[in-house]
Amino acid sequence: MASYAAQAPVTAPLTYISLFGLGALIMRSAGCTINDMADKDFDKAVDRTKDRPIARGDLTRRQAFGFLGLQLTGGLAVLTQLNWYSILLGASSLPIVSLYPFMKRFTYWPQAVLGLAFNWGALLGWSAVAGTLDLGVALPLYAGGFCWTIVYDTIYAHQDKADDVKVGVRSTALLFGEHTRTVLSAFSASSVSLITLAGYMNAQSLPFYAGVGVAAAQLARIVYKTDFNSRPSCWKGFVGCGIAGAWIWAGALADYGLMISGVQATLW
């Protein structure tokens, strides 16, 4: 979307998608390492997670800490490829990433903290391309991603709600309970509306909105059909939320492709 706004050449999105893809892989795996280190005792008590390496005893916490150091070093190496504004903006997300694994002990809203962390790329991606932030676009995109995270991670959390009660951790799945379908409908509508607003503020054209429209239908289908008391159904719904995100990305990509084709035609 930033490349679309700046009419940047194809090399810009290709470069930053590659960097951000690698950075996301490294930093989200680092978040999983922190989570598994923090949840060793919980994971041992739950059938679905008892075979994770730390819970099973294949790795000690010290070994995991060393591995985490390598992951964070790799993440820093990726971050230093960006401009200074983005380096500072990216580094400022580390406290949120580090706090997330512990939030389930203190609040029924750990999914909200996850949303704050996971969607930082909506801010960082724009600053990487433009060197600064257009808050009129980036903030509604960030907020829309935040609402989307609440939807998919609440569905995910419903898989473990019985075990969560047993081990004493909290989640939005437990908080929303029988009202989950209604609450997630509201968050889905908010997500789609905010992302549509970001597109409007960025002067996107029809392909972008087509992608958002298909994503909206996908989210509506998932929220309507998911059985929140069935682990297989929740897993299917969780994966389906990722497909909704892919449709939005595809719409933005198509919009950029049309724009860059028009620019090239004008140059010729």
TrEMBL record:
<comment type="similarity">
    <text>Belongs to the UbiA prenyltransferase family.</text>
</comment>
<keyword id="KW-0999">Mitochondrion inner membrane</keyword>
<dbReference type="InterPro" id="IPR006370">
    <property type="entry name" value="HB_polyprenyltransferase-like"/>
</dbReference>
<comment type="pathway">
    <text>Cofactor biosynthesis; ubiquinone biosynthesis.</text>
</comment>
<dbReference type="GO" id="GO:0008299">
    <property type="term" value="P:isoprenoid biosynthetic process"/>
</dbReference>
<keyword id="KW-0496">Mitochondrion</keyword>
<dbReference type="InterPro" id="IPR000537">
    <property type="entry name" value="UbiA_prenyltransferase"/>
</dbReference>
<dbReference type="InterPro" id="IPR044878">
    <property type="entry name" value="UbiA_sf"/>
</dbReference>
<keyword id="KW-1133">Transmembrane helix</keyword>
<keyword id="KW-0414">Isoprene biosynthesis</keyword>
<dbReference type="InterPro" id="IPR030470">
    <property type="entry name" value="UbiA_prenylTrfase_CS"/>
</dbReference>
<dbReference type="InterPro" id="IPR039653">
    <property type="entry name" value="Prenyltransferase"/>
</dbReference>
<keyword id="KW-0472">Membrane</keyword>
<dbReference type="GO" id="GO:0005743">
    <property type="term" value="C:mitochondrial inner membrane"/>
</dbReference>
<dbReference type="GO" id="GO:0008412">
    <property type="term" value="F:4-hydroxybenzoate polyprenyltransferase activity"/>
</dbReference>
<feature type="transmembrane region" description="Helical">
    <location>
        <begin position="139"/>
        <end position="158"/>
    </location>
</feature>
<dbReference type="GO" id="GO:0006744">
    <property type="term" value="P:ubiquinone biosynthetic process"/>
</dbReference>
<protein>
    <recommendedName>
        <fullName>4-hydroxybenzoate polyprenyltransferase, mitochondrial</fullName>
        <ecNumber>2.5.1.39</ecNumber>
    </recommendedName>
</protein>
<comment type="function">
    <text>Catalyzes the prenylation of para-hydroxybenzoate (PHB) with an all-trans polyprenyl group. Mediates the second step in the final reaction sequence of coenzyme Q (CoQ) biosynthesis, which is the condensation of the polyisoprenoid side chain with PHB, generating the first membrane-bound Q intermediate.</text>
</comment>
<feature type="transmembrane region" description="Helical">
    <location>
        <begin position="236"/>
        <end position="258"/>
    </location>
</feature>
<keyword id="KW-0808">Transferase</keyword>
<feature type="transmembrane region" description="Helical">
    <location>
        <begin position="112"/>
        <end position="133"/>
    </location>
</feature>
<keyword id="KW-0831">Ubiquinone biosynthesis</keyword>
<keyword id="KW-0812">Transmembrane</keyword>
<dbReference type="Pfam" id="PF01040">
    <property type="entry name" value="UbiA"/>
</dbReference>
